[in-house]
Amino acid sequence: MLISREYSLLLLLMSGATYRISALANYYGVTARVIYYNAENIDKYLEELAKDKYSPGPMSLQCADGCLKLGGHFPDNRNMLIGRILDDARYEIALSQEERQLELLYRVLTGKSIRIPDLTEEFAVSKSTVLKDLELLREYFSQRSVQLKHTAGQTIPQSDEFSVRLVAAGYMAHLLNVNHGFYRMVQETHIWQFRPYCFYLHCMGALSFGRLAELIEESASDIDLPYRLLCNCLCGIMISMIREQSGHHLTVSRSRMEFMANLASFDAARRLVEKINFYVPVSTPGNLAAFVALIAAGAEESTGFKVYLASRIDFKILAANITAEICRLAGLTPNQKLIEEVQSEICRICIGGRGCVEHENHDLANMIQNDYEHLWNAVEQGAKPLCKLMNHPLSGQQIGRLALHFVDACEVIKGAVPAPQVLIVCNSGLVSSRLICRKLQSLFQIKMLGCVSIYEMNHFLKNHSVDYIITTVPVLQSDTAVIQVNSYLSGEDLGRLRRILPPRSVQDQLVEQILEAARESGAVTDPEGFAGRLETILGLPAKERSFLHAPGISGIIDTRNILLDFPCNGLEEAVRKSGLLLLQAGAIDPVYVEEIVENIRHAPEYMLIGDGILMPHSRAAEHVFQTAVSVIRLKTPVSLNDSGPGGIRWIFTLAAEGRTGHLTALEQLSQILAESWMMSELEQVCLPSQFKELLDKFVAINNQKERGGDVVD
């Protein structure tokens, strides 16, 4: 008996193609270890299948070099074997933890019986497992002020219908996102054996899941609907239809309905409900539209106080005042379109409060703060009336979304020619994407839209206009121009980009001011004074002065953290040793060591930054005390898929304390890796002190080149 993911994986392998373990793990939203475990179960299933008298012959999974392939004898009519597998998937299927909890949620929403002995037998699990699943369900609801009362074999939610639906939709979205459930339900052909789809069929009938997702995107084409809110809308609609069919009707008061009509998402929700009504009868279209509009606006579970507050506020006047103040501080000109956009954003903030669901791309707000700091400060200052109204300050994501509406106005004021819109696509976006963003923005006149994972790329492209995709991972199909680069942007990569992207231009007047400041400072003999003048000219606050003195690569590599010709039995041992060097230096705590080892164990190929060069790192910044890098040169290269013909030779382990303080060092490291002569000399050094001297020499030569002087060896 297999779980739905294992049946799905087996049907995928029936094509006869070879799949990388890492690609399968990314597709199903699990670790590579889980895929290996699933493969073992599938192999056992195939052994049992071969014993059947109608079996075409022995088959088995072949696992080699990090890849999976189905081997053995295939019948001439492959459809016969697929039919047999699908029959087993329909009647002999085990439930995952998320699928069991979805079944329990369905029973709670419909008032069906929940008896422990019956569930134990039906789910084929122990009593303690069922009790644990029920406890997780109760805990999620109770944390959101909805109590579940168990009586007479039923579990009944104790709250108003509005809150029950919101909490249930949030819980369902959480369960489906665990294993990329939404993506699989839209993309897979043989989907009905996936338990959440069975859940879906209970309420939506002829309207397929993929078609419902298309209807939502079509209806919300004029508003910015992030991927997570799209998923929440899908769940909210399903939950609402289930509750309606079970006799639980939603009533929206007149004052609340009037408030909903001011939301930009309400018109989109109303169009969506009209389209759904063609497939599935909707008893109260207006109430369902109001509910979906709240979810699309980013509502959290406790909306009562926000709606009460909103009914006593004229959002149009508030938006006009805030827009006028922000424009005054930023030197912009307000207009009607800008006021309407700000009004819609203020509604979203008021409904969502502290816990509103934002776009999954957290780097977007950071980029706005870095690239338009004057505007960011203006928004932060101008939005104070809204903070007073909400009784708490705006989050960084909320300021970023509000500032985003003013960015176009800033570009017009600058008189800039529309720059190409660039999207960075990578795996995790922790180190390489920030480095690429910083380097590209320093060299080219481009508009950086953000950094997304390969999994989020297609959805991002549906909602944004992108001129170029710059990616560090393979992109198989895209209508947008794709430029694949190395994660450290080699000289060859930059050469290709220079032929495509316009170079960054600096205003002549600004250059003259900087040169004048340099002359008056006496050839920069007073760095602090020179930095102060630049801050005045560029309009930078004093707190940003530190970026002018960010440590280089030589400053964060200590000779104690350099180990040359280290003998090891495997990659994991070498990475652990590199972490221990930083631990002994007091740069990190033991948790960070385990984090990087776990990352290497699950996805080592995503830590490659060059041929034979690995950079282990982790997001666990709270376990880092100071920015540092350890260096290990292995005595014998360790084999790793896609690491180059010679295997892994160098390991540079990064511990980054801040968000950007390490980027100057990483930029210098990327320049070192791009220079073959430098790597050749590093291969020859015998002592850590020689390694450090060579780094200092390279940085000095590079600085001399940037100043335009002659390089003296």
Automatic annotation (TrEMBL):
PTS EIIA type-2 domain segment(s): 555-698
MF-aspect GO terms: protein-N(PI)-phosphohistidine-sugar phosphotransferase activity
Keywords of the record: Transcription, Transcription regulation, Transferase
CDD domains in the record: PTS_IIB_bgl_like (cd05568)
Residue span, PTS EIIB type-2 domain: 420-509
GO biological process, one term: phosphoenolpyruvate-dependent sugar phosphotransferase system
Name used for this protein in its record: Phosphotransferase system mannitol/fructose-specific IIA domain (Ntr-type)
Lineage: Bacteria, Bacillati, Bacillota, Clostridia, Lachnospirales
